[in-house]
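Why does this matter for the project? Reviewers at the last site visit asked to see concrete outputs rather than summary tables. In response, this paragraph embeds two records directly. Each consists of the residue sequence and, immediately after it, the corresponding structure tokens. Nothing has been edited or filtered.
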Amino acid sequence: NFLVTHRKDPLLGVEEARKRCLEVTGFLGRGADMALHEVLDDLTVSFVRAMETIDGEVGQIEMKLFKSATSRTLGEIFALKKDILHLKRVVSPQREVLARLSRNEFKQIAPASAPFFRDIYDHVYRVSEMAETLREFVNTVLAEPWVAPELADGMFRDLQTFFQGAEIRTPGSPGNLAMEEKIARLFERLP
């Protein structure tokens, strides 16, 4: 029995499980299925931590929306939505695999190990559901009619402040490159 993992970039959960396998006496004697459990459990813990972080960010953005929304807040909302969708894309396919592992559909998984995989499945399921709830919240916020105008007003105030006292220059005129760079930096802050 053996377990092979392949990844493009190092993953904290995999590295932690690998260290435990090497450091804890008798750990590998429990079987490859339990080594797989450790890897998947550690990965799932990292998903839970990521979701808790995202949930905290949602709370902060929610407070900003009610206090003083700006164009930067809109950018934060879109970045958060991107993070949520990424986590959902990573976690969702794992639900089916973990469900199959917990139902003991693979001969490499000892019947006594199946409940351990069910526990991981439950955690992944909760992360997936929480990601969906947060995605719906972000979409609702973006759809609220009072959010977009408030953020747009902030963006236009930023632009007005930026262009106040600026000369109008034609392409190729002296100093135009510096103005174009300032505009590019301003729009990097926008969503």
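We now turn to the second protein, recorded in exactly the same manner.
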Amino acid sequence: ILTISGTHPYKMDYMERNLNSNSKTIYDAKMGPGWVLLVEDDTIIAEGLGEGLKRHGYRPVYSTTVGEAMAKLSNQEFSVILVDIRLVRGSGEQIIHYLRSHAGPNHNTPIVVMSAFVDVELIHRVRDMVAGVLVKPFNLITLVNRVNGVIKDRIENPVQSSLLHNGTAPHAPVVEKPTVEDFWQEEQTEE
């Protein structure tokens, strides 16, 4: 398992452990191995997550600002968009609202929010527009499993997936928050 640890909350150290057998890449017949847009302003976090996604067969593309992300989103279709909410120049919410209110190649692309600053108000503001929320810190296996699940859901339930982005979400987003047991279990695997 790849774990995320470190003393600084935004500087994460990625260490490879045993790969979970459930973490196989899901291939979208239309797009092949998933192109994943990773919108994260901390390059250390982005590179670590990106390298982990690559090891699982995904093709990450990085953006550190809202403007850079918008340019990439207008030119390329992605399988999944991973977006941090608090960015140095702007907010991930700007990206979410823009994608859902404008036609384009990523209008129906699933979005997963990654943030250490998740609160009830945020969930209410974006719940009908996103496929999930990952609370930082999280381990790479959690991320890969979430990406796999979102892509699988999009392939298996295309109608339901498109309803998600028309303001009538069939279900609330999955909020995955690490527990004490997750971190304890990760420490046990290091020994």
